[in-house]
């Protein structure tokens, strides 16, 4: 069966996911597009999905019988309404991170999916599909029980509208999810400290910042978020265990001996860093959607990430103070 996909939000990642579904992956085709900026949806139709219908609203797209599954790739604050509409229509839905911009919003999605009684939602936490993180998780069997994690999430630059809390719910949210998965653990507290801000930032963005998360098993995770690092897109992670240390591999790159130096290029764009992971996560979505369900990161994972994100934003405001992170009971649907 070819899954007929409707895409809501055809900006950077919506366009890229539409491309991979129509040009790279198997089992899906883009039949519908919608964006509040209609010209953006029309441009994706012209460039990638000539047979797709452009709908005026996401709700009309979800209701259409041209669509059996939905990709929500609009701005984070609009995800909840579309995911809830997809669940109400009984259609599998891939939602980019964040599932919702507040824990309450993500909980409404969990409750709706539980009431539906079957998984319909996959959250776009693509790092769980990254070869490097998968290998790192496997290596933890040899390095022994984790004690500490040292990590960094560095972007060369971010748009002018990016503010201090976005470092958590737009950027750190990837680490928040991937460390829960990597360590098979949940968070109990968060603390944020700020070094002096770098010269390239602006008044509404304290950058960089250091987030310390403590897990239920007592692992302490330090993550640097530095979104004006200038030199490249760089994701680092080192897990210190009882018997050894395991590190996330660097992306494949050609090492050159050139001009009296040993050089190793560094990527500059998230699209390139995780290109293979996006392919694998969406192939997984298409496979499950063909069966009328979803696999991969769940609404519960999206909710738990939102709970931790909210606590981290509070910890930013309480600079240096520890903020507790609740750990609610997991519904049986996500066991
Ligand atoms: P973008 O700004 O390039 O595109 C978002 C699009 O959504 C725009 O075309 C905008 O007009 C449209 N839009 C906004 N509100 C809408 C609404 N109510 N209904 C329909 N369309 C609407 O943003 P980008 O970078 O593509 O990000 C989109 C989402 O994807 C965000 O949630 C972001 O966090 C996530 N993302 C995930 C990444 C990952 O690595 N997994 C990487 C980049 C983005
Ligand atoms: C962006 O939305 C992403 O998800 C990227 O993976 C992340 O590195 C960046 O900081 C976010 O703004």
TrEMBL record:
Domain Gfo/Idh/MocA-like oxidoreductase C-terminal: 144-319
Matching Pfam families: GFO_IDH_MocA, GFO_IDH_MocA_C
Catalysed reaction, written as an equation: myo-inositol + NAD(+) = scyllo-inosose + NADH + H(+)
MF-aspect GO terms: inositol 2-dehydrogenase (NAD+) activity; nucleotide binding
InterPro entries referenced in this protein's UniProt entry, alphabetically: Gfo-Idh-MocA_inositol_DH (IPR050424), Gfo/Idh/MocA-like_OxRdtase_C (IPR004104), Gfo/Idh/MocA-like_OxRdtase_N (IPR000683), MI/DCI_dehydrogenase (IPR023794), NAD(P)-bd_dom_sf (IPR036291)
Keyword terms, alphabetized: NAD, Oxidoreductase
Entry EC no(s): 1.1.1.18
BP-aspect Gene Ontology terms: inositol catabolic process
Residue ranges annotated for the Gfo/Idh/MocA-like oxidoreductase N-terminal domain, each copy included: 3-125
PANTHER family with a match to the protein in the record: INOSITOL 2-DEHYDROGENASE, PTHR43593
Job description of the protein: Involved in the oxidation of myo-inositol (MI) to 2-keto-myo-inositol (2KMI or 2-inosose).
Subunit structure: Homotetramer.
Family that this chain belongs to: Belongs to the Gfo/Idh/MocA family.
HAMAP family in the cross-refs: IolG
This protein's name: Inositol 2-dehydrogenase
């Amino acid at each position: 069966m070819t899954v007929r996909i409707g895409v809501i939000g055809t900006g950077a990642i919506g366009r890229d996911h539409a491309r991979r579904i129509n040009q790279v992956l198997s089992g899906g085709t883009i039949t519908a597009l919608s964006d509040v900026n209609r010209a953006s949806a029309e441009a994706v139709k012209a460039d990638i999905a000539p047979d797709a219908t452009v709908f005026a609203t996401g709700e009309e797209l979800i209701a259409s019988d041209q669509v059996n599954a939905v990709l929500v790739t609009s701005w984070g604050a609009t995800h909840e309404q579309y995911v809830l509409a997809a669940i109400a229509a009984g259609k599998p839905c891939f939602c980019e991170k964040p599932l919702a911009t507040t824990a309450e919003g993500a909980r409404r999605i969990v409750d709706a999916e539980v009431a539906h009684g079957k998984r319909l939602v996959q959250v776009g936490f693509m790092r769980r599909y990254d070869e490097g993180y998968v290998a790192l998780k496997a290596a933890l069997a040899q390095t022994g029980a984790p004690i500490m994690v040292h990590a960094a999430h560095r972007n060369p630059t971010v748009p002018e509208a990016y503010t201090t809390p976005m470092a958590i719910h737009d950027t750190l949210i990837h680490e928040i999810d991937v460390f829960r998965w990597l360590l098979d653990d949940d968070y109990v507290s968060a603390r944020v400290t700020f070094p002096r801000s770098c010269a390239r930032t602006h008044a509404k963005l304290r950058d960089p910042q250091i987030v310390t998360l403590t897990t239920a098993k007592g692992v302490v995770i330090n993550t640097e978020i530095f979104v004006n690092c200038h030199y490249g897109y760089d994701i680092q992670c080192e897990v210190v265990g009882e018997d050894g240390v395991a590190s996330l591999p660097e992306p494949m790159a050609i090492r050159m001996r050139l001009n009296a130096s040993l050089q190793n290029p560094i990527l500059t764009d998230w699209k390139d860093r995780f290109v293979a992971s996006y392919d694998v996560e969406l192939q997984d979505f298409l496979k499950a959607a063909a069966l009328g369900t979803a696999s991969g990161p769940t609404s519960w994972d999206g909710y738990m990430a939102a709970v931790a994100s909210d606590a981290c934003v509070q910890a930013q405001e309480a600079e240096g103070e520890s903020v507790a992170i609740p750990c609610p009971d997991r519904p049986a649907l996500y066991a």
